[in-house]
Amino acid sequence: MGVLSQSNIVSLYVVSGPIGNLGDITFRAVEVLKNVALILSEDTRETDKILKHYSIQTPQISYRDQNHDMVIGRILQMLDKGNSVALMSDSGTPLISDPGFKLVRELKSKGYNVVSIPGPSAVISSLSVSGLPTDKFVFLGFLPKGESQRKELIKKYGELEATLVIYESPYRVKKLLSEIFDTLGNRSVCLAKDLTKLHEDVKTAKLKDLLASEQSIKEKGEYVVLVAKEGI
Predict the structure, then answer these.
(1) Could you give the strand order of the β-sheet that contains 11-15, starting from the edge strand earlier in sequence?
(2) Which residues, in sequence order, are bridge partners of residue 193?
(3) Helices 147-158, 173-184: crossing angle, 10 deg rounding
């Protein structure tokens, strides 16, 4: 059990998993998943793909912000009995536009140990290949669905000297690009789709050119939209 922590303290392990390619998981993450007593999964079906791929037998239960109150008692009971547990989201690093904030906040407030098992994140992966400035960036996650709210946020953060990173549904990504163009003008933008997956596609261009090319925007996959600061 030494792989869990140097001092073998009973802990919640926040485990980063792949964002697409199952090979993108650390040795430490696999060993932690094998050695904890229970895995808390945003979607047990998604986590099961990883567990089967790496022959991990650890049981798992569903954990989301919506069922926090229903399962927190069981989690506390596990920890109090000396059993460490792990938290996993559907992909990438938990809590980054994924469930887990309520759990981490409550456990830390009660004095339990919380450990990060770092790994993939679509935010960092997209920045690294975008060709846009990476010295300063602002992660906005998923924007609200209302157009006025979206444009207000785009305008507010678009005034910063930083690259903006936004998650978007494939069904709304073209609309988002149009809203960015209407609000900020013809900025440089990176459109990253399905990072690490078979149909990965990363395009960096001026907004006007992306919007003019129907082939650039498809209503499928998972998108990260990065917007450069003015003048890039």
Answers:
(1) 60-62, 38-41, 85-88, 11-15, 113-117
(2) 201, 223
(3) 50
Which are the contacts of 61, defined by CB distance < 8 A and separation ≥ 6? 38, 39, 40, 41, 44, 71, 74
Domain spanning 122-227: CATH 3.30.300.20: no
Degrees (nearest 5) of the Cα angle 89, 93, 98? 50
C-alpha 70: how far from chain center: 24
pTM for the complete prediction? 0.92
Model confidence pLDDT, tens digit, residues 72-114: 999 999 999 999 999 999 999 999 999 999 999 999 999 999 9
- Locate the DSSP E strands across 78-136: 85-88, 113-117
State the DSSP H helix or E strand holding residue 29, giving kind and residue range, or none if neither.
helix 27-35
SS3 of residue 103 by DSSP: helix
Strand intervals (E) in 101-176: 113-117, 137-142, 163-168
| Topology adopted by domain 11-117 | Cobalt-precorrin-4 Transmethylase; domain 1 (3.40.1010)
